[in-house]
Amino acid sequence: MKYFVPSETYQKISDISLDYLINDKKIKGLIFDFDGTLSIRKKISIETLNFIKKSKERGLKISVLSNNIHLSKALIKILSINTIKKFAFKPLKQPFLKMAKRMKLPPQKIAVIGNNRISDILGANRAGMYSIYIQNMNSFLYKRKISKNLKHIGIKHID
After folding, report:
1. Which residues lie closer than 8 Å to 63 by C-beta, 6 or more apart?
2. Which of 129, 101, 106 lies closest to 33 in space, CA to CA?
3. What is the CATH number of the domain that holds 133?
4. Structural domain includes residue 159
5. Domain for residue 158, yes or no?
6. How far is it, in rounded angstroms, from Cα 15 to Cα 44?
7. Total domains present in the chain
8. Is residue 141 part of a domain?
9. For residue 135, which of 1, 5, 29 has the smallest C-alpha distance?
10. Is residue 156 part of a domain?
């Protein structure tokens, strides 16, 4: 069960402290999940773009590891991320370790940022990487899960 527990949890990428990752955790690279993490409904927020920009300015290596074979080329171009792996077979640890090798960093110097406890967090933890879970409270799936649980106690609808 410990492999499903992230090192940190945030509601959005822009809440992550780069100072903490770089200075305290000695992180040198970030691996992002794409769908639901960097891109939400095929859009990238200004806050996420600024986070990527600040990460690069601080010297962090950035890459994308995704199980989606149809990554938006336009969105990847906007992010200016060159190290990308499509259809990665996450949560297997091998894709994470191969990405670390491509980034020329040891796994313990990489933080994985994703919105799925199985494909992102489990894979990152098994590969020995720092895992950051993005729990989007406004996502359809999160609201559906909460709504389903509330129905059991008599609440029929949430906005």
Report:
1. 29, 30, 31, 32, 81, 83, 84, 85, 99, 102, 103
2. 129
3. 3.40.50.1000
4. no
5. no
6. 15
7. 1
8. yes
9. 5
10. no
Q: What pLDDT is stored for residue 73 in this prediction? A: 83
Q: Residue 93: name the closest of 60, 63, 121 by CA.
A: 121
Instruction: Please provide the size of the chain in residues.
Output: 159
- Stretches where the chain sits below pLDDT 50 are 139
Alpha helices in the chain (DSSP H): 18-19, 46-57, 73-79, 93-103, 123-126, 140-151
DSSP tally for the chain: helices H, then strands E = 6, 6
Tell me the C-alpha distance between 147 and 153, whole Å: 10
DSSP state of 40: B
- Residue 61: phi and psi, rounded to 5, are -85, 140
Instruction: Using alpha carbons, select from 129, 146, 124, 122 the residue that is nearest to residue 21.
Output: 129
pLDDT, residue 146, reads 53
Q: Which domain holds residue 33?
A: 2-151
Instruction: Report the side by side order of strands in the sheet with 8-10.
Output: 8-10, 130-134, 110-114, 29-32, 61-65, 83-85
Q: 110 vs 74, 83, 87, 148, CA distance in Å?
A: 26, 14, 20, 36
